[in-house]
Amino acid sequence: MACPDWIYNNRNVVERLWARLKEWRAVATRYEKTASSFMGILCLAATLDWIKR
To answer: What is the pTM of this model?
Structure first.
């Protein structure tokens, strides 16, 4: 195996989270002009995803 199991498992979790966050149109298309406003919508989407699950 090329990498330890814990690395693969964590990578899988991150990839699945990113796929769920891309369901938000603002995250997928990055409508925000500044990095700070993009980080704000990303945090909001992640928080709502965490609450929903």
So the answer is: 0.60
